[in-house]
Each structure stands twice: as structure tokens, then as C-alpha cells.
């Protein structure tokens, strides 16, 4: 049987424990999960695409179903190239819904074979976002409850030390 592949696209700048929770849960639903970092040269990010991919690879080392990739352009095309049957996205609050619903409908229009699967966040990760992580790190706050341990030092060093952010 053909493995059922899902794409989990995002900025992951940086990957948070909320993202990791979605990745773990997507692995229970699909045979293969491609975590895909959007390459958008117009968007200012704290970490380069290569750094974010490296962080994701380190954080998913124990998940053999996960492949880390990057894409430039439409997620619908990237999904078709990779024979993915679904796009996975996490939903934190109602405020996420409008944007996510619009993306899901756009992706469906572009690629009729593609389904969007929304996973409701776990309550403890409801307020986690990459932006909040960067703000907390910038002011020297404790981010250990927000990001995977294997990248905590990366984030602290880049953001608190000034770095690119
Ligand atoms: O982590 P983010 O920043 O919320 O992820 C947003 C992302 C990468 C999923 C979204 O911007 C995206 O899919 N961009 C690719 C362009 C695209 O396919 N647009 C059509 C759907 S609106």
C-alpha cells in the first residue's frame, strides 16, 4: 500500500513545543510526515532556512517517519510533488481559525486531492508561538517550557545576544 504522506508546513522560526506536539500527533495519523520550512526571502527571520531545518532535524531525530524539507512557492504544489494526501496545521484559538480556514480553502482550490487536517492544540501549548518565544528570549526570560531542550541554547544565543533578530 502507498504510504500516506502529510505535509506540515510553517515558518518554524524557531520550532516550539507546540509544533513538536503537532508533529508527534501527525505521526500517529500518517505513515510519513514532511515538516516543510517555507523559504520566503521577503520575510525577516531570526534563523536561516538551513538553521531551522537543522533544528527540526535535531528535534525529530527519534521520529523515523519525519522528513524535514523546505519549499518555495505554494504548499499545494509542494504537496503534489511529494504525493502528500494532507496538509497538517495546528489550531490554537479561534483567532487562528479565519486565516487557517482561508488557507485550507485556497489549498483545496489549487489541489483538489489535498485535504487539510487541523489538530487542536493541547491546552498547555495554547499560548505558545514562535514570536512569543523570541520576545521572551530577547529579554532574558526562561524559554525552557516553550522550546525543545535541544534548541534552547541556540535560541537564547541568537536572540539574547542580539544576533539577526
Ligand atoms: O508558520 P506559519 O508562518 O503560520 O506558516 C504559514 C505557511 C507557510 C503555512 C503559509 O504561509 C503557506 O503555506 N505559504 C506558502 C504559500 C501558499 O501556499 N499560499 C496558499 C495558501 S494561502
Structure characteristics:
165 residues, alpha/beta, Rossmann fold, binds 4'-phosphopantetheine
Structure summary:
The chain is α/β, with parallel strands linked by helices.
Structural description of this entry:
This protein is an alpha/beta fold. The chain has one domain: Rossmann fold (3-Layer(aba) Sandwich). The chain is 42% helix and 20% strand. The chain has six helices and five strands. The protein has a five-stranded parallel sheet with strand order 3-2-1-4-5, with helices on both faces. Helix 5 packs across helix 6. The longest helix is centred in the middle third of the chain and has 17 residues. The mean pLDDT is 94. Bound molecules: 4'-phosphopantetheine. 4'-phosphopantetheine (PNS) binds next to strand 1, helix 3 and helix 4. The site of 4'-phosphopantetheine has 10 residues, from strand 1, helix 3 and helix 4.
What order do the strands of the largest sheet run in, or round the barrel if closed? 3-2-1-4-5
What is the C-level CATH assignment?
Alpha Beta
**How many extended strands?**
5
Rg over CA atoms, rounded to whole Å, is 16 Å
CATH topology: Rossmann fold
Name the poorly predicted regions.
none
Strand content: 15-25%
Largest beta-sheet details: 5 strands, parallel
Kindly report the average pLDDT value. Answer: 94
According to CATH, the homologous superfamily is HUPs
Helix content: 40-55%
SSE series: EHEHEHEHEHH
Task: Name the bound molecules.
Answer: 4'-phosphopantetheine
Proper CATH architecture: 3-Layer(aba) Sandwich
How many individual domains? 1
Structural class computed from helices and strand pairing? alpha/beta
Terminal-residue CA separation: 46 Å
Number of helices: 6
Q: Which outline best applies?
A: globular
